[in-house]
Design a protein that fits this description.
This protein is an all-alpha fold and 442 residues long. It contains 20 helices and 3 strands. The protein folds into 2 domains: 173 residues, Alpha Horseshoe (Serine Threonine Protein Phosphatase 5, Tetratricopeptide repeat); 233 residues, Tetratricopeptide repeat domain (Serine Threonine Protein Phosphatase 5, Tetratricopeptide repeat, Alpha Horseshoe), CATH 1.25.40. Helix 1 runs antiparallel to helix 2, helix 2 runs antiparallel to helix 3 and helix 11 runs antiparallel to helix 12.
């Protein structure tokens, strides 16, 4: 499909569905293939089948609406967008597309209402002002049309002048407002058992320094007492996936005042503030503080560790962002994701982790985080080496066993993957049971 070999791709999907008629993943991909080939009617039949199997699959409903619009069945498209908005009333793209369908049906007032809702949800989204301007012009409301057009033009120019972190942050905010989910799992047997719950086969997230004492989260600690290059006696870490109260992050930033501190204390505060900026996804300021801390002390371990984590987080966000908008929208959207940090290669991230390892060869989280970046870069053998070192330093580290097992699976080495997954399950990683069932009981 990616190579635009339509006939070959269709034959493969047809073969899968001949064997497994209810395979919703294959139905969904075949429907997208048919839409790209301007076979909207056939695509709708596939989406209908998915929705019959899984009535709450909003991705299928959304794309069916797009296919209906391709056939100029605007009333049917509006019905599907209505279904989405009933359960996702903050999804701006559903309102945006419904407005277009309403406009095409001649319901200009309804279109304006929907474009206005989009603007309420995302006041900086220039395309909504442009679109509303066109509808106002159709209604001969020339003053409103000109006002919207000028606002849209002003926003477009302002957006192009934004600094990188602000434009990226806006883009990620927009992504959250257009993303829809669709569970393509077909396994219905014994749903109450952990083994049969749908689980994505992904490595566990990396660890980062906690922004402030975490009384409500399960943190892990590394004793740095007597060690050089830290500046702290105890390093508190949490998973990158752990949620942090954003209001408290800003409060902590506001309370920091490094101007009256001596140099050593100043470095610690720079690292702490940079860590807080990372949680805010304010990457320009985070990198500036990390770089400044490293300039003051070229052997400051937390600065290298934090900078690597910030780079990794930004890299993940941008990687996640790129494919999702086109898959869900069915058409391109100009969200303005661009910036001087968007091209960070994994080599820079791994180099920072290697510097941490050079400064403290016994810090297990440097090896663990580096293995995570190596996995994302496709360097699985090197990732396994670092995970093995992690386990050597921290023998009860459940996430490390799980990730090493998953990495062995990526290499199709079930003989070594299964014992690691079993150990991870024994240490409390419940997702491992599902993967053991699927890959190890054969």
């Amino acid at each position: 499909m990616e190579m635009s070999s339509y006939d070959l791709a269709l034959a493969e999907f047809d073969w899968v569905l001949d064997v497994d008629l209810l395979n919703t993943r294959a139905l969904f991909q075949r429907a997208l293939l048919r839409m790209n080939n301007k076979e909207a009617f056939s695509a709708i039949q596939d989406f209908d089948k998915i929705i019959e199997i899984s009535p709450d699959n909003v991705s299928a409903i959304f794309n069916r609406a797009i296919a209906k619009s391709q056939l100029e069945d605007y009333a049917g498209a509006i019905e599907d967008y209505d279904l989405i908005i009933q359960t996702h009333d903050d999804n701006m793209l559903a309102y945006y597309n419904r407005a277009g369908a309403k406009s095409n049906r001649g319901d200009l007032d309804g279109a304006i209402q929907d474009y206005t809702k989009v603007i309420d949800l995302c006041p900086d989204y220039a395309d909504a002002y442009y679109a509303r301007s066109m509808v106002e012009k159709k209604k001969d409301n020339n003053r409103n049309a000109e006002k919207d057009y000028l606002l849209a033009d002003s926003l477009s120019q302002a957006f192009s002048l934004m600094d990188d972190s602000l434009s990226t942050k806006n883009a990620f905010k927009l992504l959250k407002m257009v993303t829809l989910s669709g569970d393509m799992s077909d396994d219905k047997k014994e749903e109450g058992r952990i083994q049969y719950k749908h689980v994505d086969i992904l490595v566990k997230p990396y660890y980062q320094i906690a922004p402030f004492p975490q009384s409500d989260l399960k943190a892990t600690y590394y004793d740095a007492t007597g060690k050089n290059h830290y500046g702290w006696k105890l390093v508190e870490l949490i998973r990158a996936s752990d949620s942090i109260p954003t209001d408290r992050v800003q409060q902590e930033i506001d309370s920091l005042d490094i101007t009256t501190r001596d140099q050593n204390s100043g470095i610690a505060y720079l690292v702490r503030r940079a860590t807080l900026y990372t949680y805010q996804e304010n990457f320009n300021k985070a990198f500036s503080d990390f770089d400044m801390a490293i300039a003051l002390d070229t052997n400051n371990l937390p600065a290298y560790f934090g900078r690597a984590n910030a780079r990794l987080k930004l890299k993940e966000l941008i990687t996640d962002f790129e494919p999702q908008t086109t898959t869900l929208a069915g058409e391109s959207m100009n969200t303005g994701v661009a910036g001087s940090y968007s091209g960070h290669p994994y080599a820079e991230i791994i180099a920072d982790y290697n510097k941490v390892i050079e400064l403290d060869k016994n810090f297990p989280y440097a090896y663990y985080n580096s293995s995570y970046a190596l996995c994302l870069a496709g360097e699985y053998d090197e990732a396994i080496k670092n995970l093995s070192k992690t386990i050597e330093l921290k023998p009860a580290f459940a996430d490390a066993y799980f990730n090493r097992g998953i990495t062995y699976l990526y290499l199709k080495n079930t003989e070594q993957a299964c014992p690691d997954l079993s150990k991870a399950a024994e240490l409390g990683v419940v997702e491992a049971y599902n993967i053991i069932l699927r890959y190890c009981n054969r």
